[in-house]
Design goal:
The protein is of the alpha/beta class and 181 residues long. Helix content is 31%, strand content 14%. Helix 2 packs across helix 3. Keywords: Hydrolase.
Length: 181
């Protein structure tokens, strides 16, 4: 189960109490994609950094993304890279087209809405400050993703109480089994 898994954190990275960090600690073979600048992301640079991380994998990895990391996964899928992912677990995708997005979009807008060329699952909240329920559902439909709504969970991050997130890990492990079957 601990094959190639790449963790794609979002804007400002995922701190030590974030669910992605807990997953990394429990699954040491999983790796976080490193970015030069988490505070001022540039789409082209982040896509190239993800492409290099995928190239370093033994096989097609599963992408475990949060927030802007979800949008990165979609931009990478549309980038023309010859590399492939086995699937993408996309939690709380930020709406970079929304006026509430916290920084300039630095090339991430407009939202990439092409169908993803791999299985994907979008996990969304009903009260996320960075994406409306309707937009999250629209992204899932456009990407060809299965959609799971987890109720009022904010941005599914540390501030919303999602540090150690056993339910999220359960959903991820089920997703990994499905894409590897």
């Amino acid at each position: 189960m601990d094959g190639d898994v790449l963790i794609l954190s979002g804007l400002w990275n995922s701190g030590p109490q974030h669910w992605q960090s807990y997953l990394e600690a429990r699954h040491p073979a999983w790796r976080r994609v490193a970015h030069r600048d988490y505070n001022n992301p540039e789409r082209g640079e982040w896509v190239a950094e993800l492409d290099a991380a995928v190239a370093a994998c033994a096989g097609a990895p599963v992408l475990v993304a949060h927030s802007l990391g979800c949008i990165l996964a979609a931009h990478w899928a549309a980038s023309g890279s010859p590399l492939r992912a086995a699937g993408a677990f996309l939690v709380a995708p930020s709406d970079v087209d929304a006026p509430s997005y916290p920084i300039g979009t630095n090339g991430f807008a407009p939202m990439p809405l092409a169908r993803l060329p791999f299985p994907s699952l979008v996990i969304a909240s009903t009260n996320d400050e960075f994406v409306s329920r309707e937009r999250a559902l629209a992204f899932a439909e456009a990407w060809g993703s299965r959609y799971v709504e987890i109720g009022a969970a904010g941005h599914v991050n540390t501030d919303a109480g999602y540090g150690d997130w056993p339910e999220g890990e359960r959903l991820l492990l089920e997703f990994l089994e499905q894409v590897r079957a």
